[in-house]
Design goal:
With 349 residues, this protein is an alpha/beta fold. It contains 13 helices and 15 strands. It is 34% helix and 22% strand. Helix 1 crosses helix 12. It is globular. It binds nicotinamide-adenine-dinucleotide.
Amino acid sequence: MARTVVRVLVNGYGVIGKRVADAVLRQPDMKLVGVADVVADWRIKLAAARGFPVYASLTDRVVDMEKKGLRVGGVLEDLLKRGEVDVVVDCAPAKVGARNKELYEKHGVRAVFQGGEKHEVAGVSFVAQRNYSEALGRQFVRVVSCNTTAICRVVGGIHEKIGVKKARVAIFRRAVDVWESSRAGIMNTVVPELQVPSHHGPDARTVIKDLDIVTMAAKGSHNLYHLHIAMIETKSRVSVEDVVRVIEEEPRVVFVSGEDGVEGLNSIFEISRDLGRPRGDLYEIPVWRESVSTSSDGTEIYMMWATPNESNVVPENVDAIRAVTELEKEAKISISKTDSNLGVIKRIY
Ligand SMILES: NC(=O)c1ccc[n+]([C@@H]2O[C@H](COP(=O)([O-])OP(=O)(O)OC[C@H]3O[C@@H](n4cnc5c(N)ncnc54)[C@H](O)[C@@H]3O)[C@@H](O)[C@H]2O)c1
């Protein structure tokens, strides 16, 4: 693809879609053609009020969306038919992207799917710092879920630099997203996910094929961020300093410290708001420095980190757009452009 500026449409303007749309606006090598959805509630009306061209994802949704007072610029399929879009970032609810794929295939347009879709929908599952080159020039790529992204950044970095024999990660998930906490959620309990292992481990292997990883999950009664607790057996003896060095070198991973009063997910939430990011988004994975420890024989690492579920996949979507369009062939260059445009940092304070 010879373009120097790629034209991007975000299909599905929810938690992930609205963040990806804003991130695309901040990339000089990308142009946001517009956003598409099937409803016309306050979220989509806000997009229209911000001046985004809004399209109907499905033809039969136009009348209803207009009846609800939204100015609809047209139907997504017409845009694709006219060749006005280079890449669709599909941020529709889980499994809906698989249905939307037919449309992208029909019009030969590239698409980036999200972690709610199966690996097979795209054939390539993506975390920029792990397998950027696998996505180069592909028509379809899937950015893995927030949990899998965090695991691939942290455990993947240790695997690449030190060598992981076995990784075991427990995931405490948020129950429901903030914007829909009025509709669902749990209170004053923790609910174990009884499918063991949870799907996150096999999902991480769609990106890092030789990683021996087992994950177990439970959901808590909070609505923002997941907490990961990892026990990692290494191929050779390591020290805490070795692990700290890996984390310090790994893009999109940062340290926070209990000594500085970072006591829980709530502290990280407050930090992300203090950073002044759009929506208080945190693109980085904050690892608790004190949690990084090793067994007495130096063959196991223990550590904990937070996973900012609403936002950590946003830079990955930007890099995925560059990879599928071959706007940039080198992972390091794309990551550095994305991080500089979004203000991603290596040291919070
Ligand atoms: N919410 C998270 O924390 C999170 C984190 C990482 C990845 N993901 C993944 O991102 C994807 C989107 O999740 P989300 O949380 O943003 O969902 P969401 O429900 O917040 O947003 C989805 C949007 O898509 C719209 N939509 C419904 N049907 C559609 C269709 N046929 N075509 C286009 N749009 C349609 C909905 O109206 C809604 O606005 C899923 O695959 C999910 O698994 C979510």
